[in-house]
Amino acid sequence: MIYVAAARGTTPAALVRQIRPLLPREFVVRAAQAQVDTDVQRLSGALGLLAAGLLAFGFIAVFVGALVIFNTFSVTITQRVQEFAAIGFDLPSTGLVFAPRTAVLGLVVGVLVTVIAGLLPALRATRVAPLEALRTSAAPQRPGRWSARSPPGWRACWRSGGWF
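Above: the chain sequence. Below: its structure as tokens.
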């Protein structure tokens, strides 16, 4: 590559027209913006191929993960059925015993627990200025508002990383 700077007042197109006749036909003369556009096209093609490859690997990983989960649950269910048979408990022969209200209740409880669990950290985050939040030392220096009010047993359990 050969870079050429133009005198003030010379347009890139005029400079290209002046230089093109001076060089052999094997050389390509482009203005800076045209070179940038060419480079972007080349990189976009290469990155598109890379993105397609990563997407394929992602689909393969999800498929393998689904197989592992399916296999794990199949083995677990087989073991539980054998354990139930060993103690004389029989599974219902009518098929799946599952009421739609069970799914609705599970969904409602799951949504409520998620909203409540996210509400306190979200409220705490609204009290921090945006630039303060970007600093690494922006961690609160005092205990949270609710930690002083929680029973000591809960605090000890949370600190140890366990639940009830």
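The chain has a mean pLDDT of 81.
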